[in-house]
Amino acid sequence: MVHKAQLYEELFAQSDSRRIRVWQVRVTYPAFVVFALLLAVTIALWWLVRLQIRAEQEALFERAVSSVLSRIERQARQYEQVLHSVQGLYGSFVQVVRDVFELYATVPARSNPAVLSIGYAPCIENRYVWEYTHYARSERYWDYQIFPAITGPYLFPLLYVVPVETAPQRVGWNAAAHSTWYTAIDRACSTGAPTTTPWMALRTDPDTVWGFALIAPLYREQPHPFTQLRVGEHFVEGIVVVEVVGDRFFQQALITPAPTDSLIVFEAFDSQLAPDGTVHQIRIVESPNRLTITTAYVPTLTTQRELRIGDRAWRFHFATVPQFEGMYQRWLPWLVLGSGIIIATVGFGFVLSLVTTRARAVGLANRMTKAQRRILEASHDIIAVWELDGRWRTANPALRAILGYAPEELSGRAVDEWVVPAQRGKFRQMLLSAPDEEAVAVELLMQTRSGEQRWVGWSLTLSQHDGVIYAIGRDITTQKELQHRQELVQRRLLLAEQWALEASEFKSEFLNRLSFRLRNGLTGLMGFVELIAQRQYDSEEELQSYADAVQESVEHLLGLVAETPEIAAATPIARHPVLLGPFLAELAAWAEGEGFRLHLPSLPEDARVLAEKELLQKALRSLLRGIAESGECEEISLHIDLAPYEEGSEWSISAPASEALCRAATLVTEFQPFEALTMDDSQGTFSLLLAQAVLRRLRSAMRAECLDGTFVIIFTLPIQRAEPYGLPSSAPR
């Protein structure tokens, strides 16, 4: 220990004397790589935070814009619905008179504050003006006049107007006299769809009222009395007009403020073509907080949207207010960037310290473990490292000696490729259930490069901390062969024991039956001789002497026969009634614990068989175990046919047939037990042979066969004889 301690101190001293320089790139490059990666991650986070904040701002801005537009659009659709409802009035009636129009139009005019007026203007040809004026006056407009002056071939003078209070000032007004109105009317009649006038002054006396008008055309199938104007297959009857006050329209639309309204400013423009051909942008509305924004302010976000009313589009300009971007959002990206640079610097120093310390430790470890490496390379056992999913990572040269492969050939490949197929499932299950940091021993039959199969005993230690499995494998083929031979000898001895017991029990039963019959015969003979001895003869003394001699001989023979059972080497099996209900329930519970299910038959509650319970239990368990292991089945069926009058019961056990079960059935049926065991020494075949030997002790012959994909075993057992008055028989069977 002193020498070893001195050696370690010398090694540490040598390690300290070989200092690692900071700028040796070969050693310290990981620190620079980590610094560069952390710096890149910091910049990426800074950029992502900015993008995230920008996305949140855009989403909030979009919600605010959508909220304003949706309310204005909803309000516009409401007034378009008013126009359509009035237009539909003329589609529902052949002729609409003044009272009907005022009745239907007054309610929407009064319920919508932005409605300035709702009117009806028929289409009048210039030549029918006098007739039309006469008709209008018949509608109680006694002083009806068309104004302004009549121009153009067609006129559209207002006939019905609501509200009624303002009707006298508007009745007779010729909308076709104004080019702006006439253009909108012409589009409506030509397209058949509602149109919208530009933003304009709807009234100028006494105050100027700005807004717009919605115009919808009216058609009829027959010509109107006052016009022959035709569009397509229909004749133009006139138009309905809804005049909307602009400031009331927007006030009504935005009367219910949203929480996001304070985050944006907006203004709307109507593009109008001037007489000189230029396009003018007429401001129609702006948000109340628009005046608080200075011209030098550059908004964070801006957007332009269009809102269509009828066939006209208004352009809205939206922008954020100065308080839209908070202090937190402004400085958060820079805080992330600064923190990242600090973390990158600290990480650089930490990794630099680690790599320099590691370099010294690696040098020290290399010098300390050189001898251990030589031992590893010279070992005859496989010393390997596996991945957690069961793939080779590395191994020592012993791998070539045992499996015939070089370690680099198996790197990255699954270990179970070299495990025989029958054991791969067991191997994978073992890897999944292996405890952490505990050694697990497993024996696997593996295939070598030459195709030979070898048993390898593995000691596996799974380490979740290291992320690997440490494996040590030893070639145990010789030990397994020796163990296999010992197991074969033990199985033969066990079968021989059962057969010897069966022969001994058969001899004992035979002697018992012989003794019983001899006793009965000799007893009768003694009685007969006794009767002869009691008869009267001439020479009675002589006859009596002979009779005495016969009686003496018979008594001697009877004594010898009576002692025969005591000479027998074993006592015959005592068969007793076995109640099948509890017995089979116990058998099913045992099968459930063994991992398979046993289907039981439906029997009378008092069903019994005559047998030795322990032997019957042993035979059935051996049969079920052999079927489950050879057939790899999870369900086995048991059927019992009781024949009380024949004093017997037939037992049949069935399961899905497999190649191993059918082979075992052939061996058990057609070959002697030792010969069958030599041909197939699997546990399944042995279990069937053992069950066959035990059933012979119960005086039952077992038959096994495969029929139509089903493996069946059949044997019989005696049942209790039905006695008079329900008394069971106690005589041995």
Task: Give a quick rundown of the structure.
By secondary structure, the chain is α+β, with helices and mostly antiparallel strands.
* Portion of residues within helices: 40-55%
Q: Report the portion of residues in β strands.
A: 15-25%
Distance linking N and C termini: 80 Å
CA-based shape: elongated
Number of helices: 20
| CATH architecture label name of the domain at 93-258 | 2-Layer Sandwich
Q: Return the CATH topology of the domain at 93-258.
A: Beta-Lactamase
Task: Return the average pLDDT rounded to an integer.
Answer: 79
Task: Please give the CATH class of the domain at 93-258.
Answer: Alpha Beta
Number of strands: 25
- Helix-strand category: alpha+beta
Question: What keywords describe this structure?
Answer:
Beta-Lactamase, 25 strands, disordered N terminus, alpha+beta, seven-stranded antiparallel β-sheet, 733 residues, single chain, disordered C terminus, five-stranded antiparallel β-sheet
Question: What would you note in describing this structure?
Answer:
This protein is of the alpha+beta class and 733 residues long. Among the domains are: 93-258, Beta-Lactamase; 377-475, 2-Layer Sandwich (Beta-Lactamase); 485-567; 576-726, 2-Layer Sandwich (Heat Shock Protein 90). It is 49% helix and 22% strand. It contains 20 helices and 25 strands. The strands form 6 sheets. Strands 1, 4, 5, 6, 7, 8 and 9 form a 7-stranded antiparallel beta sheet that branches. A hairpin with a 2-residue loop joins strand 8 and strand 9. Helix 16 (580-594) packs parallel to helix 17. The longest helix is centred in the first third of the chain and has 68 residues, at 25-92. The chain is elongated. It starts with a helix and ends in a 15-residue tail after the last strand. Mean pLDDT is 79; it is low at 1-20, 566-571 and 723-733.
